[in-house]
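From the pipeline queue, job 12 of 40. The input is one protein chain; the requested action is below.

Action: predict structure.
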Amino acid sequence: MSSSDLAAASLAALSEGGLLAERIPAFRPRAAQQRLAQAVVAAFEQREVLLAEAGTGTGKTYAYLVPALLSGMKTIVSTGTRALQDQLYHRDLPRVRDALGTGLKTALLKGRANYLCRYRTEQAKGEPRFATREQIAQFQRVVAWSGRTRMGDLAELEDLPEDSPLIPMVTSTAENCLGGECPFYADCFVVQARQRAQAADVVVVNHHLLLADLALKQEGFGEILPGAQAFIVDEAHQLPELAAQFFGEGIGARPLVELARDALAECKDVSGALAAVQQPARDLEQAARALRAAMDTLPMRGTLQRALEYSAVREGFDALSATLLKLHETLGPLREASPGFDACHARSREFISRLARWLVERDLDSELEAPDDDVRWYELTPRGFRLQRTPLDVSGPLRAHRERSQAAWVFTSATLSVDASFEHVARRLGLDAPRTLLQPSPFDWNTQALCLLPPRMPEPASRNYTHALLDAVRPVLEASNGRAFLLFASHRALREAAEILRGGAWPLFVQGEAPRHLLLQRFRESGHGVLLGTASFREGVDVVGAALSVVVIDKLPFAAPDDPVFEARLEAIRRAGGNPFRDEQLPQAVIALKQGAGRLIRSETDRGVLVLCDPRLVGKAYGRIFLDSLPPLPKTRDVADVQAFFAPAPDEPVSASTALAEGFP
């Protein structure tokens, strides 16, 4: 199909009386959606890069799916999370494909950790790894399901929590996969998923998998990407941070313990192996636990230099390195005994290298001298640790991989611009003068929403800030009868607010007290609940309708000062002569605020109030950049306007009567 034909066909499909309007009951033509589709067509035809912000309600998913399906080009669509990936593949893509009447093949492809590994499931049978009877029962359900599943996708097991300790036992990683040596290779769900993707015209992946392939890491899916003619990256604002993870490398307590246990599991099929492997495997597991205990004196996150200030931690790393080396030497003579031992030996060698690269200090005489453009840091969990080496700038690798693909690239999200500029995200993605498009949300913000900036709020660092915030918010919750998200910058503030609100007039749903999907389900069902959350509730959460009518954001979401990667990035900007606040801190916070505010209005019939409590929005010059980056909803400083907004049957737009009061710019 020629460029003009594709543009005309896409526009016709999305217009009044078009195929989507005829065949999708809820579809409504939108001018902004049509403009975005035209920009996608142009990027496809010219093999260009498009950077497009499409505000909530634009219908960006249909805007890129229609050209992708009509073009006939092999297209990779990548989205931010597995939940969004499933929604895109199982709901949106079939609707558009059926409406257009195309016979194109589509495929869903996830990372290998999402698919059952038959070999590891067999190895786990009879192993004393289960901590509770519930885990044993869950494992038995997994085994029963494994006999009837066609795809092997763990998402089919709705009652299996995403963080279940069972998952690493029944899935593979790039390190422990046996590849072609696996006795179950012919029936491997990962191989089958890859084959379906290779044969498909449109493949839906998530950012983790896209980046793993771009970084040429051994996820086992690299064959699908070179043939792609177009890439669509939805939720593209997430890509730079995820890219920093994938272009770095890490090692943690759990992979080390799993290596020790996998080595022991291999012994049951090799005569005499247990006598040699048992002690080194146990020593490695013990060394990982001892190191975690020694790190108890450290902050939860910090740099390598901070960790090595303590002699007990240094000794713990020495012991870990020694036990890892001992296990590696023990496994050497057993490599020929089984593919599993060979894989364990290779994993131990890789872990030795990663640990050495993480531990090396900058030394002119060292062959392992670390580069200046990365930061090495650790993160503690209640029972483990993670050691990470992260590059400070991923724009170069992203640019190189994109140019090597020689494909069209579309980067889109509801939150990419800062004060109508794409400069910040373009720089981080390594985009030089991309085609850009800014399509604001088409909602009627003047009648559907209101923004309250409470007056007389103390400084955010004040000890009584959370109390003052709740005093300001209570009249809003009374006017709305709950139905609110309260989003906090810290877990400490969240816990403090929960204690104050507990036992009040509204059902309370607190992050951490139940899995996120259960909290959201209970919140929707309650009809007048109040949900307390932190950053993880700023995006990927969709509550349409009256159940969510208020979103409260306690503070401007500047990145935490204890984030070692962020601090190192700011220092690198400072060394290069830039302004860390202007070039990094402010743009990142603006995008995060836009994400949180975007939870409020999700459809043409939604109505709600956004409460921004941080006094810096009106007291600092940069506050205007935040406000100008938000949708054009009316603003007020008087809670009476909120009460009027929620009064029964409001027929007229709310007049923000006090918008200019008390110094509001």
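Job complete. The radius of gyration is 27 Å.
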